[in-house]
């Protein structure tokens, strides 16, 4: 059974691929993150160390099974074919990935869709696209986790994006625990993080901080 979208799932949104956790197994990392209470997981396999298609499928099955057992939505980054093959709960696409209308046509009956939007112009276009569940905006702060990241958005611009958007927004990029209260003040529905959790020395503390930051409509 696939899990329907609820904006509360954006509160503690963990994004991870094998490239983000050198020397560790992604299944082990995800188990720890789920046990700590993450509210969504996105499998994002990127960069030079990218797994082959069949490896992504095999690993994706394991990750999906773990999420399913925890009742947490399993979201695939970018790859429509992989998301469909895995029966994912959601897919997240960027502005430069497969055209958004094509994605909506291909998957909207089967899973929810998130779209990256880091400018007001992108948000206004997204408002006109039927079938989007949420937007992801960033990088809010400088990040070393994404080589081709857009320019830093910052909190003031983020607030404008939230005001302009007809969909809930999850913030991403360079987020640290001490910035969560200020981030929540912008009206976003949650934080999406790679390193803050993958490199945390205390998953429970980090995820609890994410879940209780005071997000919009929490
Ligand atoms: N998209 C915009 S910034 C980013 C992605 C995938 C990387 C976020 O990683 P981190 O470690 O939380 O800054
Ligand atoms: Mg992308």
TrEMBL record:
Residues 13-196 form the Thiamine phosphate synthase/TenI domain. The lineage of its organism: Bacteria, Bacillati, Bacillota, Bacilli, Lactobacillales. 2-[(2R,5Z)-2-carboxy-4-methylthiazol-5(2H)-ylidene]ethyl phosphate binds at residues 143-145, 174, 194-195. Keywords: Magnesium, Metal-binding, Thiamine biosynthesis, Transferase. HAMAP family: TMP_synthase. Its EC number is 2.5.1.3. Binds 1 Mg(2+) ion per subunit. InterPro entries: Aldolase_TIM, ThiamineP_synth_sf, ThiamineP_synth_TenI, TMP_synthase. Condenses 4-methyl-5-(beta-hydroxyethyl)thiazole monophosphate (THZ-P) and 2-methyl-4-amino-5-hydroxymethyl pyrimidine pyrophosphate (HMP-PP) to form thiamine monophosphate (TMP). It holds the Pfam family TMP-TENI. Pathway: Cofactor biosynthesis; thiamine diphosphate biosynthesis; thiamine phosphate from 4-amino-2-methyl-5-diphosphomethylpyrimidine and 4-methyl-5-(2-phosphoethyl)-thiazole: step 1/1. It comes from Lactiplantibacillus dongliensis. GO terms for molecular function: thiamine-phosphate diphosphorylase activity. The keyword Cytoplasm does not apply. Mg(2+) binds at residues 78, 97. 4-amino-2-methyl-5-(diphosphooxymethyl)pyrimidine binds at residues 42-46, 77, 116, 146. This is Thiamine-phosphate synthase. Gene3D superfamilies: Aldolase class I (3.20.20.70). Its cofactor is Mg(2+). It catalyses: 4-methyl-5-(2-phosphooxyethyl)-thiazole + 4-amino-2-methyl-5-(diphosphooxymethyl)pyrimidine + H(+) = thiamine phosphate + diphosphate; 2-[(2R,5Z)-2-carboxy-4-methylthiazol-5(2H)-ylidene]ethyl phosphate + 4-amino-2-methyl-5-(diphosphooxymethyl)pyrimidine + 2 H(+) = thiamine phosphate + CO2 + diphosphate; 2-(2-carboxy-4-methylthiazol-5-yl)ethyl phosphate + 4-amino-2-methyl-5-(diphosphooxymethyl)pyrimidine + 2 H(+) = thiamine phosphate + CO2 + diphosphate. Belongs to the thiamine-phosphate synthase family.
């Amino acid at each position: 059974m696939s899990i329907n979208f609820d904006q509360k799932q954006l509160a503690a949104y963990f994004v991870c691929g094998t490239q983000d956790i050198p020397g560790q197994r992604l299944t082990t990392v995800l188990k720890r993150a789920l046990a700590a209470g993450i509210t969504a997981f996105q499998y994002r396999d990127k960069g030079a160390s990218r797994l082959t298609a069949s490896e992504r499928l095999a690993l994706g099955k394991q990750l999906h099974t773990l999420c399913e057992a925890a009742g947490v939505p399993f979201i695939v980054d970018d790859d429509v074919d992989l998301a469909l093959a895995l029966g994912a709960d959601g897919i997240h696409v960027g502005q430069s990935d497969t055209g958004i209308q094509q994605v909506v046509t291909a998957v909207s009956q089967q899973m929810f869709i998130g779209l990256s939007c880091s400018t007001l112009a992108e948000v206004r276009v997204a408002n006109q696209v039927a079938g989007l569940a949420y937007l992801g905006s960033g990088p809010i702060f400088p990040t070393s986790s994404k080589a081709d990241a857009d320019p830093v958005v910052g909190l003031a611009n983020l607030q404008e994006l939230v005001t302009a958007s007809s969909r809930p927004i999850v913030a991403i990029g360079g987020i640290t625990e001490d910035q969560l209260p200020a981030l929540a003040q912008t009206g976003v529905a949650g934080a999406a993080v790679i390193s803050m959790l993958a490199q945390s020395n205390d998953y429970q503390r980090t995820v609890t901080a994410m879940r209780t930051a005071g997000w919009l409509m929490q």
